[in-house]
Every structure is written in C-alpha cells, then in structure tokens.
Amino acid sequence: MKIAVAGKGGVGKTTLAGTMARYLADQGYKVLAIDADPDANLASALGFTEEDLKGLIPLARMKELIQERTGAQPGAFGGIFKLNPKVDDIPDAYSRTRNGVKLLVLGGIPKAGSGCFCPESALLKALIHHILVRRREAVIVDMEAGLEHLSRGSTRWVDAFLVVVEPGQRSISTAWQIRQMAIDLGISRIFAVGNKVASEGDRRLIEEGISGIQVLGHLPFLQSIIEADKRGLSPYDLDQRVREEVGKIVESLLQLVNP
Ligand SMILES: Nc1ncnc2c1ncn2[C@@H]1O[C@H](COP(=O)(O)OP(=O)(O)OP(=O)(O)O)[C@@H](O)[C@H]1O
Ligand SMILES: [Mg+2]
Known about the structure:
The chain is an alpha/beta fold. Helix content is 43%, strand content 17%. The protein has helices at residues 13-26, 42-46, 50-53, 63-70, 90-93, 119-133, 148-151, 169-185, 200-209, 223-231, 235-238, 240-257, and strands at 2-6, 31-35, 96-98, 101-105, 138-142, 160-165, 190-197, 214-220.
C-alpha cells in the first residue's frame, strides 16, 4: 500500500501521515514514512526525538551522495549525469527508525515541468520510483501543500491519494483540484479524510462539499493534537482517542486498497 497524503496548507497532512504510519506499524506492517515537504516536520508527528534525528540530513542536501550516485555535482545544470543512479540501498541506509516506522526525509520532491534536470532531482526521482514500485511495505508520503508538485510529479506511482479536508471552503476546493490531478495522472483511487471536525455540522459541510470523493472517516478537533505539536510529540502517543480514530480511518483504507 503506497499512499500520498495531500491537501491545502495546514489541514493536517503531517498529523495524519504520522499517526497513520504509527497505527500501521502497531498492526505489524513494515512501514516507510516519507517526508516530501521541504519544510520537513513529519518526524515529530511520528514521535522521533531530537536525539533520534541527530545528524540526519535531507537527501536533497547530501551533496556527496548525489555526486557519488549521479556522477555530477548537485546544482550542476545541463551537464552529464546518470539518469538511473543506484538507489536501492538508500531507504535502509539513510533512514531512521523509531516505534517500528522507518523515516526518510527527502527535502522536497522534484517538481515536474520545473525544467530542473539537475542531479539531485534525478536521484530523488529514481528513489521515489524505486520506493513506490519495488519496495514491499506500506509507504506513506507526507506531501508539501500546494498542487504543482502533484501535477505530473513522481507521485503518479502511488496506489491512492488521500486528501485531507477541514471544515472550510478553501480546503474543499483544493480537494477538488487534487481529485482532477489524480484523474489526469491515471490514479483512480482518491479518498478524503475530514480533519478538525468539531460538530455534526462540520462533518456535513465536508461530506456535502466533496460528495463524489469517498470519505474514509473524520478525525475530530482535539486539543491533545495541538498540545502534542506544542511539545514536539506525536499525538499518537498522547491520546488514546487519536489512536482509535486514526485506527478506524486506516482500517477503512486497508479494506479499499487491499480488499
Ligand atoms: N484534529 C486536529 N485537532 C486539532 N488540531 C489539529 C488537528 N489536526 C491538525 N491540527 C493542528 O493543525 C496544525 C497543522 O497541522 P499539520 O502540520 O498536520 O498540517 P499540514 O497540512 O501538514 O500543514 P503544512 O501544509 O504546513 O505541511 C498543527 O498545529 C496541528 O497540531
Ligand atoms: Mg505538513
């Protein structure tokens, strides 16, 4: 199961990606969590400590690795470099593991059509392709907000897009745009999760706003999630309610993706 978590800025992509990965690991799945946001913060939602992350550098900034694998200096433009660099050892060699979740920090995702034919982009593209097509484990990709990187980017290899929606027209309209991109990419499976739902009215607003996109479930607005973020902890460790609600969402996803 390979899932990309997308949605408007601030809707809760990282919170959901992190807690879903933890739930899957608790169920015995091998889990690889990919932080594809240049403003990386998936680690704390997963429950990694600063100590765990000491010395961890986002892959896009690992100059020596990029040069060793592609044969060219990062930032080199228009030069000659390998388009199919060796990447199969990277997920294990350059990740950190805690609570059964392996975390890989990309430092961004190559933007399709940005014209960046540079070595770091070639390495990341090959790596994402390898992870999404070859590796046999549950993969959760925490995406950057915005749509540009989704349009023709490397995410076309995922099994499903999971769009996070909060009660509000802006995130609903982003969800529709993402749905259209998924269709254009040939990804037929797109699911929504409501987040920060505080009332029956909120739930209705989301479900009516995105009727046509299948809703997996809703995560309530919980003070403990805000508290966890303040303290740099995973809400999964702080609140039984989060574990239960995220569990229900993942179980419905599993039924649809691996029936
Ligand atoms: N269910 C919830 N209840 C209360 N607060 C929440 C909930 N979900 C997320 N939040 C809070 O909303 C803020 C944004 O969440 P998060 O970082 O997960 O969103 P994001 O979509 O990943 O944001 P970005 O687009 O910046 O990457 C955080 O402070 C988080 O604690
Ligand atoms: Mg985020």
